[in-house]
Amino acid sequence: MAWSTLGTGLLAGAASDLVWEGWARIVTPVLVGGPLQPAALVQSVFGFENWFWAEVIHGVVGVVFYPLGYLFVARPLARVIVPFMPWWMVGIGFGLGLWVFALFVMAHLIAGLPAFLGFIPLAWASCAGHALFGLVTAAVVRWREAHLKEGRS
Description:
Helix content: over 70%
Number of domains: 1
């Protein structure tokens, strides 16, 4: 992996995570009466009580691993399966896939919570937050790759 690709992924992850955190901790409480707390899900999945480390795990996953998943899995698959789909739809689709992973695979299949938390309002806020995360990831990747291409021209 080229350093520029790693930098692109980290920049996309940092921007996406900032948007996610704003959505989760500022917007969601206004909409549904309480914040999204992914650290609580991390605690449920891994069975530990330390809130700080649960926040760190979620942060590292959001800043490092999810953007790399977009770059090396989601976007290449979209280019093969749905090459006509615009970048922003691929980004939103990626984010929705993260939501399914979080609230079905991790929360339901691993932690034993109701699938998609029973579709309570907080689950829909999580859906929107993950869609925003994916959109920002795709937008930053698109911007950064165009910027790097211009710099080499």
